[in-house]
Amino acid sequence: MTDLSATTGVTDRPSGTAQQTGTTPDAIQQFLDRQRPETPCLVVDLAQVRNRYRQLRTALPDARICYAVKANPTPEVVGELVGLGASFDVASPGEIDLCLAKGAAPESISYGNTIKKRRDIARAHAQGVRLFATDSAADLANIAEVAPGAQVFCRVLVDNEGSRTPFGRKFGCLPETAVELLVRARDLGLDAFGVSFHIGSQQLEPTAWEHGIDAARRVFAGCAEHGLRLRMVNLGGGLPAAYTQSAPPLADYVRRIEESLDRHFGAERPELLVEPGRFVVGDAGVLRSEVVLVTDSCDGESRWVYLDIGRYNGLAETEGEAITYRLRTSRDGDPVGPVVLAGPTCDGDDVLYQRTRYELPRTLRGGDWVDLLSAGAYTASYSSVGFNGFAPLPTHCVDGDQQP
Amino acid sequence: MTDLSATTGVTDRPSGTAQQTGTTPDAIQQFLDRQRPETPCLVVDLAQVRNRYRQLRTALPDARICYAVKANPTPEVVGELVGLGASFDVASPGEIDLCLAKGAAPESISYGNTIKKRRDIARAHAQGVRLFATDSAADLANIAEVAPGAQVFCRVLVDNEGSRTPFGRKFGCLPETAVELLVRARDLGLDAFGVSFHIGSQQLEPTAWEHGIDAARRVFAGCAEHGLRLRMVNLGGGLPAAYTQSAPPLADYVRRIEESLDRHFGAERPELLVEPGRFVVGDAGVLRSEVVLVTDSCDGESRWVYLDIGRYNGLAETEGEAITYRLRTSRDGDPVGPVVLAGPTCDGDDVLYQRTRYELPRTLRGGDWVDLLSAGAYTASYSSVGFNGFAPLPTHCVDGDQQP
């Protein structure tokens, strides 16, 4: 995650992305109040997951929605989405096994990682997976050899400006290379299906997809010159969750995407695929932590609040302070003051927010709780197996539609 | 880990720290050749762990050696060190349980984390742990209440210049605050034992301990003015493993430390405690990975080598390219060229070395292996539970003294 310039966070400020969910808003709160689970823990409301999926289904009725399993691979979450008819974007054999175990059909799975072992491609193909991402000649050759006849889409590199967690240059090729690869795919007996791109996760600029849709159009045109008619554009992920920074509502994203599609494809509109992860599960989770200790810094100029959750047991996305969670505490309502927030390990880098301004109740002390809101995505699965001897972050699922 | 300026790494260049171990150097290699374990995996040679412990025992005969369990909590490693009479620096209840389970005496355990829940202090005390670090009034009050009569040492903040992984300002207080806290500790009925500091892990400058020993002397003097005679200086960790950058030999560190102790304490030499982690286990481990894919970058100007090990399944210390491992490949001897090294996940930040220059054989391809040398510390325990569906890094132990 990239180190962005300092931003300002405040306690529990509702972000512009907060969508009306229609489910009991406090199913998670009720669970926390009644069960008082050991901390730290993540609580996910499956009703909110369903609701988000349906919102997106309504907003993009023609798109195939592939849930990005990496965002939250909790089996109950995957199972809910199987039940709703979702497709799945997977990164590894482990994620394929998980989806199949939860009842997903192999044809609902898109192997979206461009970095795949040859034997993992063969294994996926043997399991019935038929759709693969690629962005290199070496990977394409492997797919052609061990997954004959499979569908492939080629990932192009696009500008990630506006993203809180941009991708750098690890994935994607130039549009002209994509044309070469897709033509070669056809010549190798594969189904050259389309183009994908990713404008960066937690993308706060709805116009960002324009870059990718324009690039996709150029790849479509280039392939057409070789007599190859592509049919699909994979819009990737990027739709936001509600952190401290305001994000536009879903409708704004959809409108801009539709405008770009009209501009570049007109009546020749391709099939669409989207890979939401954070958007589906981010706002559906609350991470409860306990205050370990509150101290004054050595210079007496700042107050440090140490939580039992940190960068190595769930909050990996606080690296570079990229993702700034909204907070709620057991002392809300008391007068607040600025704090530095840090995790519980002996690691000097296990500091959550030092440049981002957070204000928490001055009365906060060891034993109080602090909830990190919208923490359903990219938390528990990042957790270390036991760095410093701390256990991985457990996940509890509740269902706001099943409340009494 | 801090983002340092670009450095130059090369393949398998022996570093100045490489100590003669006296054990069969290739016990790990033999295991890898014979067993061909699934990759990625870490292989640790217990003979090299023993050897390193004994080197340090000889070099610092008067110091109490507390192995920093966080560096590698593999039960076999902890068990070996229990057998050698080591003490243990622990960060959490989990690490205390591990040490006790492997036969460590409670009085051999130092609870070195200054960030402790009150109930975890009580639990440790009930288990027989009697030595605690502190650096704040809040933590000290907890210790006094739930671990009455315990020994405490106070951590002071010192300059970390020269460290590849400096601590920032998360831990430690000013020397004058340490005096206040230690005097208060005495007044609360605790045994105010001494002072600790940490000059940063992988410290390449043997004179770095001077800062901390000088600070400790000032705390001793300040406490003496209150009629409190401290008895112990905890020199922390910082001794290096053999990565691509040269590090001085152990003797240089010991000589500089002894000089500082003589200068500041003279005949009033305190008891010493050291907390080596990386030095004990770093060079004892080899991490075997497999090449997933080799590609040309989108601009055709760089070659990317993707391994099945990355930042999220073991190589957390490549963050900011802080730790630069020496590499060995199955194609060594073939002509080399520059590469970017990256991990297997769909995360754009899962890139190991992009600014650090690494050169690997031009013949390298998917299915070949790449060994990361001196990877025994801060690898497996950092591994995520399953980010992107990849399993945590397993550890295999061998014993070079038990070879046929």
From TrEMBL, chains A, B:
Q: Where are the active-site residues found?
A: 346
Pathway it works in? Amine and polyamine biosynthesis; putrescine biosynthesis via L-ornithine pathway; putrescine from L-ornithine: step 1/1
What are the Orn/DAP/Arg decarboxylase 2 N-terminal domain coordinates in residue numbering?
46-281
Q: What keywords is this UniProt entry annotated with? A: Decarboxylase, Lyase, Pyridoxal phosphate
- PROSITE patterns, alphabetically? ODR_DC_2_1
Q: Which residues form the signal peptide?
A: none
Xref: Gene3D superfamilies = Alanine racemase (3.20.20.10), Lyase, Ornithine Decarboxylase, Chain A, domain 1 (2.40.37.10)
Q: Which residues carry this modification: N6-(pyridoxal phosphate)lysine?
A: 70
Question: Which residues lie in coiled coils?
Answer: none
Q: Which reaction does it catalyse?
A: L-ornithine + H(+) = putrescine + CO2
The EC number(s) attached to this protein equal 4.1.1.17
Region (Disordered) residue spans:
1-24
* GO terms of biological process kind: putrescine biosynthetic process from arginine, via ornithine
Keyword Lyase assigned: yes
**What InterPro entries does UniProt report for this protein, alphabetically?**
Ala_racemase/Decarboxylase_C (IPR009006), De-COase2_N (IPR022644), De-COase2_pyr-phos_BS (IPR022653), Orn/DAP/Arg_de-COase (IPR000183), Orn_de-COase (IPR002433), PLP-binding_barrel (IPR029066)
Q: In Gene Ontology terms, what is one molecular function of this protein?
A: ornithine decarboxylase activity
Cofactor(s) it depends on:
pyridoxal 5'-phosphate
Family the UniProt entry places it in: Belongs to the Orn/Lys/Arg decarboxylase class-II family.
The name under which this protein is listed is ornithine decarboxylase
Q: Which organism is it from?
A: Saccharopolyspora antimicrobica
